[in-house]
Each structure stands twice: as C-alpha cells, then as structure tokens.
Write a structure and sequence with these properties.
The chain is of the alpha/beta class. It contains eleven helices and 14 strands. It is globular and about 50 Å long. The chain binds 1,4-dihydronicotinamide adenine dinucleotide (NAI) and oxaloacetate ion. InterPro entries: L-lactate/malate_DH, Lactate/malate_DH_C, Lactate/malate_DH_N, Lactate_DH/Glyco_Ohase_4_C, Malate_DH_AS, Malate_DH_type2, NAD(P)-bd_dom_sf.
C-alpha cells in the first residue's frame, strides 16, 4: 500500500500562511490520508531560523504521513524533484497599499522560482501560486518554466470562492454544503466577479432564490471582492488560516477530483474560453478528474456578468502588459 512520498515545496514557509498550512499538509489534508509527504521549505536567509522552528514543531506532531522536512534558502534546491509547489512567499499587502505596487517587487521572486521549477521539477508537477498578485505572479513563474506544461501553473481564487459560498449561504439561511456551482471569474483582486447566476441552492437557481439584484450589486459582490481588505482592517494582517484552507482545497480537488454536479474556481491559463484572452491566468469554473482540470464550457453569460468579467480580465491584461514592459515575462 505504501507509495513513495510526494515532494511538496512550500515557499514563504515561515510566514503566517505557511504556519497555518504546513501542519495541515503534514496531516494528510492536502493530498489524502494514503499519501505520505516530504516537505521542502523555502525561505529567505533571514527567515530560515523561524522555518527551522516550525519544522521542530512539525516533528513534535509525529504525523504518520510526514516522511521528512528539508529547509532551503535556495530555490533551485527547494524545487528539485517537486511534485506539488505552493508558492506562498511574497510580500503581503499592508494597509493602504495598492496591489499594483506589488507587481514589480514580486516579479523578482517569481522569475527565479519559475526557473528553478523548470530545472528540477518532477514530470507531474502541479503549481499553485498564492502570493499576491497571484494571477500575474503565476504568469511570471510560468514564463520562466518553458519545459513545464503551461496548465500546471495555477493561481488561487479558491478563497474568494469559499467566501462567496459563505456569504450566499448566510443570505439564504442555508448551510454552505447546499451551495453548488458558484464561479469566481477573473483576477484575485477587487475586480474579481463572484457569479451566482449559475449557482444552485438545494437544486434551485441561486440568483432566483436571492431575487435581489440590489443585494447582489451593492452587498454581495463588493463584500466578497473586498473581503481581503476587510480582514486586514479587522486583524491588522491579511487572511492566513482561511488562505491556507483554500490552498488545501485547491490542491486537494485538483488531485482528487471535484464532486459530481459541482465545480470549483481556479485561476488557470486561459484557452480563450468565454472571451478571455488566451494565455492570461484568469479564474474560471472548472471540474477536475484524474489530476487534470477542465473549464466548464457552455454557460450562458448575461450582459451584467459580461461587463464584470471583462473588467476583471482587462485588469489582468494590463498587469500582463506591465510585467512584459518590465521584462519579467
Ligand atoms: N491568493 C489569495 O487568495 C491570497 C493571497 N495572499 C498572499 O499570500 C502571500 C503570503 O502571505 P502571508 O503568509 O500572510 O505573508 P507573510 O509576510 O507572513 O509571509 C511571507 C513569507 O514569505 C517569505 N518570503 C519572501 N520572499 C521569499 C522568497 N523569495 N522565497 C521564499 N520565501 C520568501 C518571507 O520571509 C515570509 O516569511 C502574500 O502575498 C499575500 O498577499 C494572502 C491571502 C489570500
Ligand atoms: O488582500 C490581500 O493581500 C490578502 C488577500 O489576497 C486576500 O485576503 O484575499
């Protein structure tokens, strides 16, 4: 029954998401209870000691599925043999800081990491970029890993998806488990579009069940899209445990498949579906099976949704153009 351990590389391992994430990976929640994992942690030199401290705690948990922990300050070593790469390390947005300001600073992180993945990753590598601006950071890493199939680079919009499910469930007075087929479109930013027009609640159309366009426009969409800022305002730090939870959900579903009759949201390289320019990393509704994802095709997009999707996609093409001008892709 025992299979070889899966190499999971986590960057930013000493950060706040890292601390919320590593114990869950080691306990089997990322890949499943039959899959041993070997953790490969990447940090900047100043934070290696803190990562070592976390490693001591991981050891003290005596997780049966954790077959080893290695800590690096060199991306080439950290990504050698990587099967699942969680690219978390980045500079988090602080109060009042625009996400656009982060593009240049983070570009310098994701280029060498893309190169390291290209040089050393296992053939089946799957990459999830969490560090913001996640979609464009994923694009940068992908651009520097020409030997890795492009579709293996994904960005996290699952936290937005989960936030939307929670808000919709609260509005309708149902449990989150009753909500199906929500979609986050576009960028993991305030322009994202959480779409309930195809969502279902207890088998009925969610937009019809809500029946309140004003709530949708004035409360639901802005609340979900600006939830990151709301959390920063409340905690004085950005979402950590909920972000780690979403990363677990993203990879778990990618590897193990989505439930019949449902889908999830992932930031993935566009194939041109739904008028989203090919190549940019944008959030779509996807189903997953046997370790592969597929865009849910054929959804009817109403005029309201079209405008919202286009606005977020425009932001993504602008970000792409900026990093192109900066020579990062
Ligand atoms: N996509 C999403 O839904 C979400 C994304 N985020 C983003 O996740 C990122 C991480 O957030 P936190 O853990 O809260 O930040 P943090 O500041 O607590 O931790 C970041 C860690 O990354 C490390 N790091 C910096 N450069 C690195 C490099 N080149 N290689 C390896 N490690 C490096 C730092 O030393 C630090 O330990 C931020 O960019 C944040 O904005 C946060 C929440 C949700
Ligand atoms: O806004 C941030 O920096 C953190 C984030 O991405 C989120 O909570 O969605």
């Amino acid at each position: 029954m025992t299979q070889a351990p899966v190499n999971v590389t986590v960057t930013g391992a000493a950060g706040q998401i890292g601390y919320a994430l590593l114990f869950r990976i080691a306990s089997g929640q990322l890949l499943g209870q039959d899959t041993p994992v070997r953790l490969r942690l990447l940090e900047i030199p100043q934070a290696v000691k803190a990562a070592e401290g976390t490693a001591l705690e991981l050891e003290d948990c005596a997780f049966p599925l954790l077959s080893g922990i290695d800590i690096f300050d060199d991306a080439k070593k950290a990504f050698d043999g990587v099967n699942v790469g969680l690219l978390v390390g980045a500079r988090p947005r602080s109060k009042g800081m625009e996400r656009g300001d982060l593009l240049e600073a983070n570009g310098g992180i994701f280029k060498p990491q893309g190169e390291a993945i290209n040089a050393g990753a296992a053939d089946d590598v799957k990459v999830l970029v969490v560090g913001n601006p996640a979609n464009t950071n994923a694009l940068i890493a992908q651009a520097h890993a020409p030997d890795v199939p492009k579709e293996r680079f994904t960005a996290m919009t699952r936290l937005d998806h989960n936030r939307a499910a929670a808000q919709l469930a609260a509005k309708l007075g149902v449990g989150v488990a009753d909500i199906r087929k929500l979609t986050i479109w576009g960028n993991h930013s305030a322009t994202q579009y959480p779409d309930i027009f195809h969502a279902e609640v207890g088998g009925k159309n969610a937009a019809e069940a809500v029946g309140d366009q004003k709530w949708l426009e004035d409360e639901f969409i802005p609340r979900v899209a600006k939830r990151g800022a709301e959390i920063i305002e409340a905690r004085g730090a950005s979402s950590a445990a909920s972000a780690a939870n979403a990363a677990i959900d993203h990879v778990y579903d990618w590897v193990n498949g989505t439930a019949e009759g449902d889908w999830v949201s992932m930031g993935i390289p566009s194939d041109g579906s739904y008028g989203v320019p090919e190549g940019i990393i944008s959030s779509f509704p996807v189903t997953t099976k046997n370790g592969k994802y597929e865009i849910v095709e054929g959804l009817e997009i109403n005029e309201f949704s079209r405008g919202k999707i286009d606005a977020s996609v425009q932001e993504l093409t602008d970000e792409r153009d900026t990093v192109k001008q900066l020579g990062l892709i």
